[in-house]
Specification:
Helix content: 25-40%
Number of helices: 4
Strand content: 35-45%
Radius of gyration: 15 Å
Number of strands: 7
Oligomer: single chain
Strand order of the largest sheet: 4-1-6-5
Distance between the termini: 38 Å
Amino acid sequence: MFTNNVKFFQKAVVFHPLSTRFLILKRVEHDTSAPGQWDFPGGGIDFGELHLAALEREIWEETGLTIVNQQVIEVMTRFDASRQIYSIFVAHQCQATHAEVRLSEEHTAYRWVTASEWAQMDAPPSLKQVVARLTAVTNDGVLEAQRRRDQ
């Protein structure tokens, strides 16, 4: 994190190494941010840390997964007037090199889901927007990871 009133964080749509499914994590019920909701792996960036190194670190800490082929999908900003916090959020897509997930204490469950399954999950609207953006980028609704594999 940069300062107490500026937060820079990132999440990733992590695709399964052998399919177009991607990983979602269920946050613990006592979390201060989106308790009990489904989420993507990722988190904060420490001051001076390179953003891709931070993304790889956060995904490893939360899931035990190593990732490749990172690409930015979306950048969003938001100002929370009540808390006086400006947030910068970067969403990525990437691919896991293996499918064996090891959860950290921050999450209680995981699933590999399709975009249509994700649309039905209890998740923050900004994360639903990320997958909608990702599927809208393709001409036929096929997720980008599949298109890259088929080329």
